[in-house]
Design brief:
mainly alpha, 216 residues
Length: 216
């Protein structure tokens, strides 16, 4: 096992929470950062995560991160990219959580995997909702700035989780609260818009029948 920081109970929970959230934002940056931190001796990887330290994995994630760096900043295409990565970010976050708890019982590993996937889903959902709101903007700068901020946050949270896992988890908890409030507002706004649409359709007068000239 690589030398470096080892985690106790609360630290392990904090690590899983923060890294899962980071993976929901940018899974390639998260995995590559974990691998590089392990090689730098700043993180002791459990046996279930030794693969993350492979240079092949780090290199592959680096290439994919470079592709995502540009693809995720193209308006409209970023929505397709994020939809596709629903099937990447969430499973990988669950696998990271599962591997990080390899020293625990299988039941606790499964619980950690479910929690990691759920947290990644929340981060991914919040990211996608933000993109839907920003994409209609005619200028590309807001989209670029949002994407760059997400990439930076993913790397920062991954690093912070290995040094101060509890603090990283508290930051993620604040983000989850914000995401929950925003998603609730979005759902209410969409529900209200649909109700108004159906109400207008019901109140719309029926089209008048054409006059039959032969009936006179």
């Amino acid at each position: 096992m690589l030398a470096g920081m080892k985690f106790g109970g609360s630290e392990l929970v904090g690590l899983i929470v923060a890294v899962s959230f980071a993976a929901g934002l940018n899974v390639y940056a998260t995995v590559a950062t974990l691998g590089l931190l392990a090689h730098a001796g700043l993180l002791g990887l459990p046996s279930g995560l030794q693969l993350v330290a492979s240079w092949w994995v780090i290199a592959a994630c680096g290439v994919l991160f470079a592709i995502e760096f540009f693809a995720d900043k193209i308006p409209a295409f970023d929505l397709f990219w994020n939809a596709l990565h629903t099937f990447v970010r969430i499973p990988v976050a669950a696998l990271i959580a599962y591997g990080a708890t390899s020293q625990l019982s299988p039941e606790k590993q499964l619980l950690a995997a479910l929690a990691g996937g759920a947290i990644a889903l929340a981060a991914h959902g919040g990211k996608t909702a933000a993109r839907v709101a920003v994409t209609p903007s005619p200028e590309p700068f807001s989209n670029f700035a949002l994407s760059a901020g997400e990439d930076t946050l993913a790397v920062f949270l991954t690093w912070l989780a290995t040094q101060h896992p509890v603090a990283a988890a508290l930051i993620v908890a604040a983000f989850l609260v914000v995401i929950g409030v925003v998603m609730r507002w979005v759902v209410r706004a969409m529900t209200r818009a649909l109700m108004n649409l159906f109400r207008d359709a019901e109140n719309e007068p029926a089209p008048s029948k054409p006059r039959d000239l032969n009936a006179a």
